[in-house]
UniProtKB/TrEMBL annotation:
Annotated Gene Ontology cellular component terms: cytosol; membrane; motile cilium
Annotated localization: Cell projection, Cilium, Flagellum; Cytoplasm; Membrane
A biological process term (GO) from this entry: lipid transport
PANTHER family found in the cross-reference section: PHOSPHATIDYLCHOLINE TRANSFER PROTEIN, START DOMAIN-CONTAINING PROTEIN
Keyword Iron (UniProt): no
Protein name, as recorded: START domain-containing protein 10
Stretch list, region Disordered: 241-262
START domain ranges (all copies): 20-204
Length: 262
């Protein structure tokens, strides 16, 4: 299937989903973080939405943190590897991301097309999975599918903002119920707080690491090779391996592995 680069309508639809309460059920609301769930056609492809209010963080800073791949390696302990593959337009690229799943599940990875749009007091970043001929599924990972994942950042004045994170991912496997529960009750809230803490530390870090380099804001700084959208196809879940991990039981994390698994 051909790949479609998101347009203004796609961004508007994503923003509407983030802000709407219709059809969403709150599963967690504690410590400034709210998590909602929305069951779609199958239980394995659940849609999650999260919200956190970030005090003492400018919307522009949060936007930079979510874009800055170099900094992500400092705070995203869930990540195994990430890198940009190439650019499509001034506000769209293709990248790779692999993440550590709770043991004993297999780790997952993605190849996604990401698009972003600063819009007044709002900043949006959305992605979905694509197939790139040079980055096929790997032997040691389960290639998962992002149907729609993204962030909406809304400015709440000069030094505060609200972050929404919405994700609908097909993990390509029958997952045990404890995984779904753990994601909504533990992993997702902790991830939101981790982003918030990363934002508080980012300005000082960025001053020491290429402070003027922000290719997501200044396209002339982007040195990625150009990719033609014709070289990409939409990643369909039914073309990938589907594994059954539904009978796996949860392993108790060791005393120092909490961050490693979230």
């Amino acid at each position: 299937m051909p790949v479609h680069i998101p347009d203004d309508t796609d961004f508007a639809t994503f923003k509407e989903q983030c802000e709407s309460q219709d059809g969403w059920t709150a599963r967690y609301n504690k410590g400034g973080v709210t998590v909602w769930c929305r069951d779609e056609e199958t239980t394995t492809v659940q849609k999650l939405k999260m919200k956190i209010v970030c005090k003492d963080v400018r919307a522009e800073t949060l936007y930079d943190v979510l874009h800055d791949t170099s900094y992500r390696k400092k705070w995203d302990t869930n990540m195994i590897d990430t890198f940009d593959i190439g650019k499509l337009t001034v506000n769209a690229d293709v990248g790779y991301y692999s993440w550590r799943c709770p043991s004993p599940l297999k780790n997952r990875d993605f190849v996604t097309m990401r698009s972003w749009l600063p819009l007044g007091n709002d900043y949006l970043i959305i992605n979905h999975s694509v197939k790139h001929p040079q980055y096929p599924p790997k032997k040691d990972y389960v290639r998962a599918v992002s149907l729609l994942t993204g962030y909406l950042i809304q400015s709440n004045g000069t030094n505060a903002c609200t972050l929404y994170y919405l994700t609908q991912v097909d993990p390509r496997g029958s997952l045990p119920k404890w995984v779904v529960n753990r994601v909504s009750q533990f992993v997702a809230p902790k991830a939101m707080r981790k982003i918030y803490k990363a934002c508080l530390k980012y300005p000082e870090w960025k001053r020491k690491h290429n402070p003027n380099l922000k290719p997501w804001m200044f396209p002339e700084q982007n040195t990625l090779p150009c990719i033609s959208v014709a070289d990409l196809t939409l990643q369909r879940a039914d073309s990938l391996e589907n594994i059954d991990e539904s009978t796996l039981s949860e392993e108790k994390p060791s005393h120092n592995s909490e961050d490693e698994e979230t």
